[in-house]
Specification:
GO terms for molecular function: sequence-specific DNA binding. The chain is built from five helices and four strands. By secondary structure, it is an alpha+beta fold. The protein is elongated.
Protein backbone atom coordinates (compact mmCIF):
# COMPACT_ATOMS: atom_id res chain seq x y z
CA UNK A 1 0.00 0.00 0.00
CA UNK A 2 2.73 2.48 0.87
CA UNK A 3 4.43 4.09 -2.07
CA UNK A 4 7.56 6.18 -2.17
CA UNK A 5 6.83 9.74 -3.27
CA UNK A 6 8.39 10.50 -6.60
CA UNK A 7 9.25 13.76 -8.30
CA UNK A 8 6.52 14.68 -10.79
CA UNK A 9 7.55 14.21 -14.41
CA UNK A 10 7.53 17.27 -16.64
CA UNK A 11 4.92 16.93 -19.36
CA UNK A 12 4.32 19.19 -22.31
CA UNK A 13 1.02 19.70 -24.17
CA UNK A 14 1.75 16.82 -26.57
CA UNK A 15 2.43 14.43 -23.68
CA UNK A 16 -0.83 15.51 -22.01
CA UNK A 17 -2.79 14.95 -25.24
CA UNK A 18 -1.28 11.46 -25.62
CA UNK A 19 -2.09 10.58 -22.01
CA UNK A 20 -5.66 11.86 -22.33
CA UNK A 21 -6.24 9.69 -25.39
CA UNK A 22 -4.65 6.62 -23.81
CA UNK A 23 -6.72 7.04 -20.63
CA UNK A 24 -9.86 6.99 -22.78
CA UNK A 25 -8.79 3.98 -24.85
CA UNK A 26 -5.34 2.43 -24.52
CA UNK A 27 -6.08 0.06 -27.39
CA UNK A 28 -5.96 2.89 -29.95
CA UNK A 29 -3.47 2.07 -32.70
CA UNK A 30 -0.34 4.22 -32.63
CA UNK A 31 -1.29 5.73 -36.01
CA UNK A 32 -4.65 6.84 -34.60
CA UNK A 33 -3.03 8.49 -31.56
CA UNK A 34 -0.55 10.27 -33.82
CA UNK A 35 -3.29 11.46 -36.19
CA UNK A 36 -5.50 12.75 -33.39
CA UNK A 37 -2.73 14.83 -31.85
CA UNK A 38 -1.32 15.99 -35.18
CA UNK A 39 2.07 14.31 -34.95
CA UNK A 40 3.90 11.51 -36.70
CA UNK A 41 4.09 7.95 -35.45
CA UNK A 42 7.75 7.69 -34.36
CA UNK A 43 7.83 10.77 -32.08
CA UNK A 44 4.55 9.63 -30.48
CA UNK A 45 5.96 6.15 -29.89
CA UNK A 46 9.13 7.66 -28.39
CA UNK A 47 7.05 9.79 -26.02
CA UNK A 48 4.93 6.81 -24.94
CA UNK A 49 8.06 4.71 -24.37
CA UNK A 50 9.66 7.54 -22.33
CA UNK A 51 6.53 7.95 -20.20
CA UNK A 52 6.52 4.18 -19.55
CA UNK A 53 10.18 4.28 -18.52
CA UNK A 54 9.48 7.24 -16.23
CA UNK A 55 6.59 5.40 -14.60
CA UNK A 56 3.92 7.83 -15.81
CA UNK A 57 2.28 4.97 -17.72
CA UNK A 58 2.28 2.03 -15.29
CA UNK A 59 0.50 -0.51 -17.48
CA UNK A 60 -2.45 -1.26 -19.71
CA UNK A 61 -5.49 -3.21 -18.56
CA UNK A 62 -8.95 -4.30 -19.66
CA UNK A 63 -11.72 -2.71 -17.60
CA UNK A 64 -14.38 -5.27 -16.75
CA UNK A 65 -18.06 -4.72 -16.01
CA UNK A 66 -18.76 -5.83 -12.42
CA UNK A 67 -22.47 -6.51 -12.94
CA UNK A 68 -21.75 -8.69 -15.98
CA UNK A 69 -19.57 -10.79 -13.68
CA UNK A 70 -22.31 -11.01 -11.03
CA UNK A 71 -20.60 -8.57 -8.67
CA UNK A 72 -23.59 -6.43 -7.79
CA UNK A 73 -22.64 -5.27 -4.29
CA UNK A 74 -20.00 -2.64 -3.62
CA UNK A 75 -19.15 -2.06 0.04
CA UNK A 76 -16.94 0.64 1.50
CA UNK A 77 -15.46 -0.86 4.64
CA UNK A 78 -14.25 1.55 7.32
CA UNK A 79 -11.77 0.00 9.74
CA UNK A 80 -10.57 1.24 13.10
CA UNK A 81 -7.84 -0.53 15.00
CA UNK A 82 -6.02 -0.03 18.26
CA UNK A 83 -3.03 -1.94 16.89
CA UNK A 84 -0.46 0.03 14.96
CA UNK A 85 2.71 -2.03 15.32
CA UNK A 86 4.64 -3.30 12.30
CA UNK A 87 3.66 -6.95 12.81
CA UNK A 88 -0.08 -6.19 12.83
CA UNK A 89 0.27 -3.87 9.82
CA UNK A 90 2.12 -6.57 7.87
CA UNK A 91 -0.54 -9.19 8.70
CA UNK A 92 -3.33 -6.76 7.76
CA UNK A 93 -1.63 -5.85 4.48
CA UNK A 94 -1.13 -9.52 3.61
CA UNK A 95 -4.77 -10.31 4.44
CA UNK A 96 -6.05 -7.43 2.30
CA UNK A 97 -3.77 -8.22 -0.65
CA UNK A 98 -4.77 -11.91 -0.56
CA UNK A 99 -8.46 -11.10 -1.05
CA UNK A 100 -9.48 -10.38 -4.65
CA UNK A 101 -12.75 -8.83 -3.41
CA UNK A 102 -10.72 -5.86 -2.15
CA UNK A 103 -10.23 -3.69 -5.20
CA UNK A 104 -8.91 -0.66 -3.29
CA UNK A 105 -7.37 -0.19 0.13
CA UNK A 106 -6.22 3.07 1.71
CA UNK A 107 -4.62 4.02 5.02
CA UNK A 108 -6.24 7.21 6.24
CA UNK A 109 -5.56 10.19 8.45
CA UNK A 110 -8.31 10.96 10.96
CA UNK A 111 -10.76 8.85 12.97
CA UNK A 112 -10.83 5.93 10.53
CA UNK A 113 -7.58 4.01 10.04
CA UNK A 114 -8.33 2.21 6.77
CA UNK A 115 -10.96 2.13 4.05
CA UNK A 116 -11.48 -0.78 1.70
CA UNK A 117 -13.54 -0.92 -1.46
CA UNK A 118 -14.95 -4.43 -1.69
CA UNK A 119 -16.84 -5.88 -4.67
CA UNK A 120 -18.93 -9.00 -4.01
CA UNK A 121 -22.00 -10.80 -5.33
CA UNK A 122 -24.31 -9.92 -2.43
CA UNK A 123 -24.56 -9.29 1.32
CA UNK A 124 -23.98 -12.96 2.14
CA UNK A 125 -20.72 -12.89 0.15
CA UNK A 126 -19.71 -9.72 2.02
CA UNK A 127 -20.35 -11.48 5.35
CA UNK A 128 -18.07 -14.36 4.31
CA UNK A 129 -15.39 -11.82 3.39
CA UNK A 130 -15.85 -10.01 6.73
CA UNK A 131 -15.74 -13.20 8.82
CA UNK A 132 -12.62 -14.33 7.01
CA UNK A 133 -10.86 -10.99 7.51
CA UNK A 134 -11.59 -10.69 11.23
CA UNK A 135 -10.48 -14.27 11.78
CA UNK A 136 -7.04 -13.31 10.46
CA UNK A 137 -6.42 -9.89 11.97
CA UNK A 138 -7.68 -8.21 15.11
CA UNK A 139 -9.81 -5.16 14.31
CA UNK A 140 -11.41 -2.83 16.85
CA UNK A 141 -14.35 -1.66 14.73
CA UNK A 142 -15.66 -2.31 11.22
CA UNK A 143 -18.38 -0.30 9.51
CA UNK A 144 -19.62 -1.47 6.13
CA UNK A 145 -21.40 0.97 3.85
CA UNK A 146 -23.30 -0.43 0.87
CA UNK A 147 -23.12 1.72 -2.24
CA UNK A 148 -26.66 2.17 -3.54
CA UNK A 149 -25.61 3.81 -6.81
CA UNK A 150 -22.32 4.44 -8.54
CA UNK A 151 -22.58 8.05 -9.67
CA UNK A 152 -19.09 8.41 -11.10
CA UNK A 153 -16.28 5.96 -11.62
CA UNK A 154 -13.21 6.54 -13.69
CA UNK A 155 -9.66 5.34 -13.92
CA UNK A 156 -8.64 8.56 -15.71
CA UNK A 157 -6.44 10.85 -13.64
CA UNK A 158 -6.57 14.63 -14.04
CA UNK A 159 -3.42 15.59 -15.93
CA UNK A 160 -1.90 18.74 -14.37
CA UNK A 161 -0.87 21.63 -16.56
CA UNK A 162 2.81 22.56 -16.64
Amino acid sequence: MAQTPQTPVRLDDTDRKILSLLQQDSSLPLEEVATRIGASRTPVWNRIRRMREQGVIRGQVALLDAESLGLEACFFVLIRTTEHDADWAARFLAAVRARPEVIEAHRLAGDIDYILKVMVKNARAYDRFYQSLISEVRIQNVTALLSMEEMKATTALPIPEA
